[in-house]
Amino acid sequence: MTVLVSGRGSNLRAILEQSRAPGFPARVVAAVSDRGEVPALEHARSAGVEALALDAARDPSWDAHLAAVLEERQVDLICLAGYMRLVREPLLSRFAGRILNIHPSLLPAFPGLDAQRQAWEYGVKVAGCTVHFVDAGMDSGPVVLQRSVPVAEDDTPESLARRILAEEHRAYPEAVRLFALGRLELRGRRVLVRPQ
After folding, report:
1. Where are the domains of the chain?
2. Which CATH superfamily is domain 1-96 in?
3. How many other CB atoms sit within 10 Å of the CB of residue 39?
4. What is the predicted pLDDT for the residue at 142?
5. DSSP 3-state of 76
6. Which CATH code is given to the segment(s) 102-196?
7. Could you tell me where the beta strands, DSSP code E, fall in the chain?
8. Phi/psi of residue 68, each to 5°?
9. Coil, helix or strand for 190?
10. Residue 196 — pLDDT band, cuts 50, 70, 90?
11. Across-strand partners of 145?
12. Per-residue pLDDT averaged across 51-56, rounded?
């Protein structure tokens, strides 16, 4: 698997930690940043994982270039972890059904940027995170799993975001595990989890 990153890399770190556990069925072979050098790449390097700093702003054929890089490495799963770009062709077709993303809301509510603040400002009583397959839209792909977080009366957007992030760190490796074990079945917009 390859993890695409754009920033600090806390979800990458969570996936790396879980992937080192005995019996975990997937390994990270590379981390790729679309913004050049970012802190997430240092996490990858310290874990002995190839770290590629490819600046998308300077590459008009970024998505095609990235697809070629991933195909060279025979990647079977792509995980977006704080990756701040929409995935486009040819990545979508070449890796159809093999791209996961995590978003800090219970989709379809609050897609896009700053979802935790959106949820807090809306006044929801329950927030959370969603792991989903990636399609051409923004945070619109089929839901793999979700984790809920109650919104406390004294929450701020920042405190809510911290609690949601803790759930992200549990949910994302679990979704990767289910994918690697072949237990996810995509039927239209529904993702079924097959029993072991």
Report:
1. 1-96, 102-196
2. Formyl transferase, N-terminal domain (3.40.50.170)
3. 14
4. 98
5. coil
6. 3.40.50.170
7. 2-5, 30-33, 50-53, 78-81, 99-103, 126-133, 143-150, 184-187, 190-193
8. -65, -45
9. strand
10. confident
11. 131
12. 90
